[in-house]
Amino acid sequence: MDDKQKPKNGTSRYISEVKSEMKKVTWPSKPELYGATIVVIVVTFVTSLATGMLDMALGRVMELVIMFSR
């Protein structure tokens, strides 16, 4: 019996559809992947720096609020 004639259960149908979709994927080249990785690292660093500075600033504001509320 040909594979295309067999009724497929949920799991084998899912795997078959995944294989079909993976053939349509356009994978990035090494330079594109390298560039995207650098962007992710830089954005993560900048976001972490901004979050840390905001945390320090809000901490100072809270110290002032507590100091003046006594």
Describe the structure.
By secondary structure, the protein is an all-alpha fold. The protein has one domain. The chain is built from two helices and no strands. It has helices spanning 10-22, 30-68. The longest helix is centred in the last third of the chain and has 39 residues, at 30-68. It is elongated. It starts with 9 loop residues before the first helix and ends with a helix. The model has no long low-confidence stretch (mean pLDDT 91).
Question: Topology as H/E string?
Answer: HH
Distance N to C terminus? 85 Å
Structural class: mainly alpha
Largest sheet composition: none
Instruction: Give the averaged pLDDT, no decimals.
Output: 91
Query: What fraction, in percent, of the residue positions are helical?
Result: over 70%
If you compute it from the alpha carbons, what radius of gyration comes out, rounded to the nearest whole angstrom? 27 Å
Strand content: under 5%
The shape, in one word, is elongated
The number of distinct structural domains comes to 1
Report the strand count.
0
Low-confidence stretches: none
How is the quaternary structure best described? Answer: single chain
Number of helical segments with 4 or more residues: 2
Write out key terms for the chains shown.
70 residues; mainly alpha; 2 helices; elongated
